[in-house]
From TrEMBL:
<dbReference type="InterPro" id="IPR004360">
    <property type="entry name" value="Glyas_Fos-R_dOase_dom"/>
</dbReference>
<protein>
    <recommendedName>
        <fullName>Glyoxalase/fosfomycin resistance/dioxygenase domain-containing protein</fullName>
    </recommendedName>
</protein>
<feature type="domain" description="Glyoxalase/fosfomycin resistance/dioxygenase">
    <location>
        <begin position="4"/>
        <end position="130"/>
    </location>
</feature>
<feature type="region of interest" description="Disordered">
    <location>
        <begin position="61"/>
        <end position="82"/>
    </location>
</feature>
<dbReference type="InterPro" id="IPR029068">
    <property type="entry name" value="Glyas_Bleomycin-R_OHBP_Dase"/>
</dbReference>
<dbReference type="InterPro" id="IPR028973">
    <property type="entry name" value="PhnB-like"/>
</dbReference>
<dbReference type="Pfam" id="PF00903">
    <property type="entry name" value="Glyoxalase"/>
</dbReference>
Amino acid sequence: MTSRLNPYLSFDGDARQAMEFYEQVFGGTLALNTFGAVGESDAPQADKIMHGMLETPSGFTLMGADTPPGMEHSPGNNFSVSLSGDDEAELRGYWEKLSAGGSVAVPLEKQMWGDVFGMCTDRFGVPWMVNISEPAS
């Protein structure tokens, strides 16, 4: 297996809902492991997600989990998940689903550098950037 870099998102108890939402947005195969399934079946967080991984037909991998007990969940504004490419229909479809129920910081529209670009935060508080470039000729 080659090395790869992918986002790993932390949630405050709603990782299952968030990862299932991303599965609806991107399609693919979602694997969810709870704290209970790895030996903490009596713990209060037994039904929470210890590790989730979504692998999509487009080759995206998105991981996420609920913040473990004893660790502070402190979302910030120091990251965004970026989607880019030249398949306008696919990327616009992702945009519509991700921005629904969230907030749009930059509308998805043509920008001064020539690409179509937008920024939104989904309903789980995760910031996304979508950039649609012209297909290579």
